[in-house]
Design a protein that fits this description.
alpha/beta; Alpha-Beta Plaits; 2 domains; 9-stranded mixed sheet; binds iron/sulfur cluster
């Protein structure tokens, strides 16, 4: 069966601007009626990395917050911590609560601007999680951000753009990376155990890694030693060890083209955790570069702004968004300025090659086909295009 994906384009007028359009999508998704007074509503978004100028403007989160409040919902805006410790420095670290909330402030995300509390759903260290068993091909248990447990509904508000490991960084990425703790993120990025090389370790006089280990699984004798049974692979020790110049603590990066199935399966755990019926998805396909918002730059835009998509199906919304990006004429100044319409601009921009054949891989296709395989949703969709004149809660024009 086809999933419905609502769409409103980027054209604006004074009586129907992007925030009006966002409200239109909100209503078509049925949120204005579904949210009951007193229900706890999470708005899940991403605050961007310092230096990135393509991230989602806080006004979109504010609009959603105001709409939720108007129907009596108790709303908060949420993100989760990133991997590492202090990576990105004073401006741009996203790896503990104070780091990331400081980063959010720099990008205009505060309780005052969005009109609601802002929290990191996986806690100070990224370890405030609960395990959800799944029957994935690669993952059997997902560490879901604990704040989800208290939510009656989740509005996943996503900036749709590229992602160097998943092709497209859309709703599925926002679920599968954005709503898991550090262990879940590490499962995607790294393989094998943390290693500490005793030859390189500086020993007790350093001890920097002990203080930042969230599970306190590093002990110090003559050299640092990890109790792997308690390690969550959070990368903290690797970060600080590199900063002291020792590079004794190391982790092995999973090959780029093999990573997206892990976050797809994480997304299954996230959705299963409180039930698929609690989730509502919105993709803002604007400021579309090939880079994720966790990069510290505003990479050139591949296409013009496209618009806003909304759906109850996390795969269908990403499929519809990807197709629209493929169909859009390329920005001539972008790295894919001479690509044909219909081809995957993300694949060309990322140029991730098959290690054996050397062919460029279509990572978005890999991500979405795996999402279909594990039953996250459907790639078949009915696009319902909304205009200001659309009757409320109806399909004005179907394509
Ligand atoms: S931070 Fe590195 S060098 Fe320092 S104690 Fe830990 S492992 Fe050894
Ligand atoms: S030992 Fe494991 S849990 Fe501790 S800081 Fe290193 S990666 Fe994180």
């Amino acid at each position: 069966m086809k999933a419905t994906v609502y769409f409103t384009d980027r054209q604006t007028r004074t009586d129907y601007n992007m925030l009006d359009k966002l409200e239109h999508i909100f209503n078509e998704l049925g949120l204005h009626k579904a949210i009951k007074p007193g229900e706890k509503i999470m708005v899940k978004t991403h605050f961007g990395q310092w230096g990135n100028t393509n991230y989602l403007r806080p006004a979109y989160a504010r609009k959603i917050v105001d709409l939720v409040k108007a129907v009596g919902g108790e709303v908060f805006v949420a993100e989760t911590t990133g991997l590492g410790y202090g990576d990105g420095g004073a401006y741009g670290g996203r790896t503990t609560v104070p780091e990331y909330l400081g980063m959010a402030m720099l990008h205009g995300y505060t309780a005052a601007t969005v009109g609601a509390p802002i929290l990191l759903a996986d806690g100070y260290w990224g370890t405030d999680v609960f395990e959800v068993p799944i029957d994935g091909e690669f993952i059997k248990s997902v560490d879901v951000a604990a704040a989800l447990l208290d939510c009656d509904k989740v509005i996943v508000l996503t900036h749709a753009k590229g992602h160097g490991l998943g092709g497209i960084g859309g709703t599925i990425k926002n679920l599968g990376i954005g709503l898991v703790g550090k262990k879940g993120k590490a499962a995607m990025h790294f393989m094998g155990d943390i290693k500490i090389d005793p030859e390189k370790c500086l020993g007790p006089e350093c001890s920097k890694c002990l203080k930042v280990c969230p599970t306190r699984c590093i002990s110090m004798g003559e050299k640092a030693v990890v109790d792997i049974s308690k390690c969550i692979a959070c990368h903290h020790c690797v970060s600080v060890c590199a900063k002291v110049g020792a590079k004794a603590a190391t982790q092995t990066w999973r090959p780029n083209h093999t990573q997206s199935p892990y976050f797809v399966e994480n997304a299954v755990g996230v959705v299963n955790s409180i039930g698929a019926d609690k989730f509502y998805y919105i993709n803002l396909a604007i400021d579309i570069s090939d880079k994720c918002d966790c990069w510290n730059l505003g990479a050139p835009l591949l296409v013009h702004d496209i618009g806003i998509f909304g759906s109850r199906d996390p795969l269908a919304i990403d499929q519809a968004t990807l197709q629209a990006i493929k169909d859009a004429p390329p920005n001539p100044d972008s790295p894919v300025g001479d690509i044909e319409c219909g081809a995957c601009k993300f694949a060309m921009a990322h140029a991730c090659k098959d290690p054996e054949s050397g062919e460029i891989l279509d990572l978005a296709e890999r991500q979405l086909s795996h999402a279909e395989k594990v039953g996250l949703g459907t790639r078949e969709y009915k696009l319902v295009t909304l205009t200001k004149e659309s009757p409320k809660k109806s399909a004005q024009k179907e394509e």
